[in-house]
Structures are given as structure tokens and as C-alpha cells.
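Long-time lurker. I teach an intro course on protein structure, and each term I like to show students one example going from raw sequence to a predicted 3D structure in C-alpha cell notation. This year I'd like something fresh instead of my usual example. Would anyone be willing to generate the C-alpha cells for the chain below so I can use it in lecture? Attribution to the forum is fine with me.
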Amino acid sequence: KTPPNLLQIVKATVISATLGSLATRSDPEALAALAHIGEVDRALGHAELIHEPARKSRAYRLIAAALIDRRESSTIQPILQESLKAPRSVELVHFRCPVLCDLAETLMKAGEVELARQVASEAESAAKKESHKFFIPELLIKTAWAHLWVGNSEQSNAIAEDALRALGDENSVQTLAYLVRLEAVLHCGGNIERAGEIRTKWVALFDK
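-- Reply from a regular --
Happy to contribute to a lecture. Here you go:
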């Protein structure tokens, strides 16, 4: 009989204790780590105690993603449903939209194609309701990626164009960063010619 590896046992105990301490503070990433090592019920218990909707949704989404990685699909459905409830109660659009975008990607990985597309559309609707100009380009770009993740490249390209119009004529480092990201989403969406035009714009801006 092989004797127990005391060093590995001690390491596992320390890791478990550390993760447990972090989870007590309801850190979504720590809860996902707990799920990764099989402590799913423990992770879900802590996630349930989170009050802030955006963080609560992120916690459930990351736990679901951990289960996808572990190929434990039988328990994913109720967790995904919980992750759907929280973002819809987030009042501020610039918080709600990114949560929905991330959720659409996870739903797609879970094989929930129609639901993922529905959530991407919800993210788009939220982005278009944003009234603060500062947030609009960022939210539209995130939404363009969300539509791309769920296989809707045509809508992704259309929203990318909306984001480009939202940028206006301002020349800044932030505009440059947005243009680089828009090139990427258009290129991944198959709109190679338009992506090339955006690249020309950001290169000219970079050279100024």
C-alpha cells in the first residue's frame, strides 16, 4: 500500500482553507476556484449570500464556467438560471450590459444557443439605452463581441458601425484603443474590407 503524501495533503489543506476564507468574503473568482476543485455546493452557498446583483451574477456565471470545464453539465442549468436573474435587476446600464455580454458567452459554451442569443439581444438593448456618451462606445463594442460569440456576425458588424459613429471625430488614446478593438471584432466577424479601413484610421491616428 502506498503511504500518503503528507506534503500534498498539507498543500491541499492550505489551499482549501485559503479558498474558504476568500469565499467567505464572496469573491466570485474564489467561488469559481472552489467549484473547480469540486466544492460546488459550498461555492453556491456563498454565491447565494451575495447581495450586489452584478457580482452575484458573475459568481454564478463563473461557477457555471468551472462546471463546464469539469464537464459536469448535469448541474449547470439551475446555476445558469440564477446567473440570469441577477443582471436584470442591475439599474445602471453600464454595469448591466457587460454582465449580460459575459453571460451570453458562457451560455454559448454551455450549449444554450437560443438563450445565449436572447441575452446578447438584451445586452444590445441595454447598450442602446445608455445616455452617458462616455460609456456608449465601450458598451457597443462589448455588445458587438457578444453577438459574435453567439454566431450573429451580421448584427455584430452593424453594432460595430454604431460604435464607430459614437466615437465621433475625437482624436485621443481612448479613441485609438476603441478603433483597434473595432478592427478586431469586424475582422473576426468576416468583414475584412471594413476591418482594413478601420485599421487605416487607427494607424493614421497613431502616427500623429
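Some talking points for your students: DSSP finds eleven helices and no strands in the chain. Residues 6-24 form the longest helix (19 residues).
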